[in-house]
Specification:
The protein is built from eight helices and four strands, in the order βααβααβαβααα.
Amino acid sequence: MPPFTVLHVCMGNICRSPMAERLLVLAVRARLQRRGSGPDRADDLLYSHSAGTGGWHAGEEMNPPAARQVAGRGGSVEGFAARKLRSDHIDAADLVLTATADQQEYVVALRPDAAARTFVLGEFGRLLAAVDLADLPPADTHPDAVYARGVALVAAAHAARAGTTALSTDDLDDPWGRGDQCFSRVADEIEEVVDPLAAALLG
């Protein structure tokens, strides 16, 4: 039940998935503000969190260039600590977005019943564009309405996936150790998915 829960997964949980976690929250807050609703209500409507397939960085802060991208775009990096993905994280998620196809396979291997709600980030962005939002439950800023719309959106994206082929371009490059320009490009690619996701959830 509410809030609608999105789990972001990458390898070490210090670069791609934390950027996606925080940039989705930022997108929801911006959408609420445009609707004239308090952006501080975002936590009631959405729980965006992340984990890594490996636990090497458990307890660490976001990688500094990743943190710079989040902060520079208006998001918060406070309170973040990397962690290793666990089965219960997947069980509690309404939508799982992975940085790469390999990580999608890892999630589904841990929890086969999560296959219908697990997508590579870029893949989900492509499928989202094919969903007719008019077929979803009405958009509203009540937690129950956002939850119902989100669950229906995920089901519609999974239905749209039938018969399609994954693309190598769906994967996010790993920017670790590659400098601010690469991190900026990856953050842009994340925003290209999480912004439309926030819009689809809230109308």
